[in-house]
């Protein structure tokens, strides 16, 4: 029997490396690890039926129909005259295939785009289109198509790994700088406060990851082709993520209170209000997008998301309001 690490490598090599998250995981490698642990092999639309067959051969399981329709290679295209330079698509791209800076026009590097679609939802002005990839359209036969898919997979894996290393390096540098500033501001006896700041940073990092996962699940729930069972499964997953987020928010609030710094506590509450307002704006944009598309299921899901965002904003504003006497 194939050893687990070797099996994971083989599965990962079979996946298309679009890093799209349609499988419910944060990239192809985590999905490969999940398949090795027994997760279904039919959750990769970019891989199509051929990938399901190859995964069945690797794992010794039966082939299954794809949970979502197969997807041909795509490329994102930014309508640059409508771009406001918010950088949200740059932050969302799992392979760093978008160039731009704050308040400057963004553009997609066509040869490096995997067509993952992750840049579409964050765009506040809905100026990103998904089109058939020109290199895929130019492939004249099956061999040319296989060559393109192999090149896309190799480049997608390399750029995704490089991005993960960059993000980890930046997070570590940010943590180190924050620790240095804290050490300069406090006396040696206040090291417990420094440890608390580090713990708070870790919680916020985890919170950002959970929010990204919840956003992907919410997008998947808007798929009109989902079965009732799939929709219930996604709803359970979303509830679990929301529960974990609520737990982290509670821990962050408790940490702020124990620090006994009213000014810092106020900043934290204002930050919570700003984050809630942004979440409500995104929910309104998704609702408007769904209404433009005429997708009833997506409209209903977006309205639910907007209602949740309104509740969170109301709670954040109540926490910020001064206590009544």
TrEMBL record:
One of its GO terms (molecular function) is 4 iron, 4 sulfur cluster binding. Residues 184-204 have a biased composition (Low complexity). Residues 3-61 form the 4Fe-4S domain. It comes from the Bacteria. Residues 153-204, 252-303 are annotated as: Disordered. Keywords: 4Fe-4S, Cell inner membrane, Cell membrane, Electron transport, Iron, Iron-sulfur, Membrane, Metal-binding, Repeat, Translocase, Transport. The keyword Ribosomal protein does not apply. Residues 74-103, 104-133 form the 4Fe-4S ferredoxin-type domain. InterPro entries: 4Fe-4S_dom, 4Fe4S_Fe-S-bd, 4Fe4S_Fe_S_CS, Elect_transpt_cplx_RnfB/RsxB, RnfB_subfamily. PANTHER family: ION-TRANSLOCATING OXIDOREDUCTASE COMPLEX SUBUNIT B, OXIDOREDUCTASE. This is RnfABCDGE type electron transport complex subunit B. The keyword Zinc-finger does not apply. Residues 153-168 have a biased composition (Basic residues).
